[in-house]
Design goal:
Chain A: Pfam families: ATPase. The complex is a heterodimer of chains A (about 475) and B (about 80). Chain A has about 475 residues and is an alpha/beta fold. Chain A contains 19 helices and 23 strands. About 0% of the residues of chain A have low confidence. In chain B, helix 2 crosses helix 4. Chain B has a three-stranded antiparallel β-sheet. The complex binds adenosine-5'-triphosphate and magnesium ion.
Amino acid sequence: MHKQISTGIQGLDAILYGGIPDGSAIIIEGAPGTGKTTLGVQFLYEGAVQADEAGILITFEEFPEQIYSDMKSSFRWDLRQLEKENKLRVVGLSPDVLLEQMMKPDGLIEQMIHEIDCKRIVIDSISLFRYFTAANDFEERRVLYQLRNILRKFKLTSLLLQEQSDLNVSHVPFSHFIVDGVIRLSVRPHLDVFRKRILEVVKMRGTRIIEGEHTYRITDKGIYPLNAAQTIAEHHREAKDKISTGIKELDHLLDGGMDRGAVYMLDTNSRANYMPLIGSILSERLSSQDHLLTVLSSTQTVEELDTLMSRHNIELGKVINEKRVHFIEHYNRQVPSGWEKAVYYVNGLDNEGYDQFLRNKCYPLIQSEISCETKWFVYYDLNTIISERGTDYVLRSFAKEAAFARSLGMTVLVLCNFKEVGEQVASFLERTTNGVFKTWVDGSNQYLQVTKASNGQLSEPYLLESTKEHPFIRLI
Amino acid sequence: MEKKESLPLQMECTMLFQANPYMIESISGLERRLGRQEEDLKPVLNILVKQGILQQIGEGTASLYRYKEPVIITDMDIPDKLESP
Ligand SMILES: Nc1ncnc2c1ncn2[C@@H]1O[C@H](COP(=O)(O)OP(=O)(O)OP(=O)(O)O)[C@@H](O)[C@H]1O
Ligand SMILES: [Mg+2]
């Protein structure tokens, strides 16, 4: 049995039940723009960073400097730094020079392999051999065969990138016969707006694979395959740790629901109508006897929340009487009589005063009720806190509050407009949360996507469709 | 005279190799990368090899060039060296 080495790409490792067999040569085939170079560089980058294995990237057409700058700007992979640490070499040369130097005893490539103790190599792309062998099939085959043998001799695990020349997928290029594995990347139109990217393992000697077409995305962390249902099942948690969102399809995407005691963020833009989502989640919590703490926003008053809840068959007044809901109010607004006891006014408080209020009033209240087996759900609009208390305040306090909530098993849902808060703040917030849902409007449609979840899975974007009955939305 | 004129091309070559420190190229490869001609490149490459900026592997038209680790060149004061090859 071969040892399997991680590709550094989580979803792909899962599809390959662990990774690529050590020392094998794999073709990555795909049309332009499908992400071959990205996948190749990711394999080397993650190999260096996660597995401390050095790698070589051979690039025939691109200038290495182009790759340095593309990878840095797209994915923040600092390849120059890895080169300085002798964990990587990005070698620009031509196919004939590569072969010549690989065949020569102690040639430049062999020297380099020893110099950095190279374990992984990526060749971008073997399609270029075609030109140098003057499109002579026989000669090209000989050259590839030779290349594969040399790579094996050096015990390198290799990714050979290949442009998909023939759109007719039933035509099998001879190169596929001589390598140990073939992974195909392709793009297909999907839901009009999206192009669906598909990854398929066509062949892989020496390991089981999850067959079929796996959707993948290119994210700012590189190639991201969304796993087939089988692997998701392995992550399945006990249902008691899950809380329903009230939306069947969303629960399904989350392996049963939100994780109890986790912090979620709903990234929304101003055009997206997120209220049905919030309505469904909050009403589901209240009808499950959870306690709710919510910060009212400039756009959401108690009355509006009441309207929203009654639409979802929850009588807010009744819940207030049961002391199961508490409001934090940043604005000087009236509430219906009898509801005042549920409202904490913090409009006069500066940031320090607000901190004290949280520490001395709010947290003790929660803690006292936690001790009698109460489950808490917290919901607020972070943009309100940012506009009232400033970005610095949020950056300082958010992680702390999230940790506090987690420690008490409170589930938190925070609304935030990532675009509005800026990239840096958003990425900080995202790191602090356990899950992120994103909803946005494109054309006349609204979409929802789980972009971060505890099972490590990104979902596809789903269309949000309104329905006539509770929960008034569904994902398609 | 000729050498003076070759200064911009020397810079061009040096910068190419500095930005792509693990590139390995033949003269014909450099022709393609830089969009220059062999007869102009050849003398320039010879100078850069003499200056220790590039390493030459092999002889003749098949020879390869690659960047040498910049222990020697900290900044590019090429003109001085240029007058006394
Ligand atoms: N951060 C990112 N988020 C999403 N997509 C990205 C990101 N960075 C790059 N991309 C997309 O990834 C694709 C680039 O993929 P890559 O260059 O790896 O493809 P390729 O298969 O090597 O293409 P070619 O055949 O042209 O060399 C581009 O289409 C680009 O739009
Ligand atoms: Mg590419």
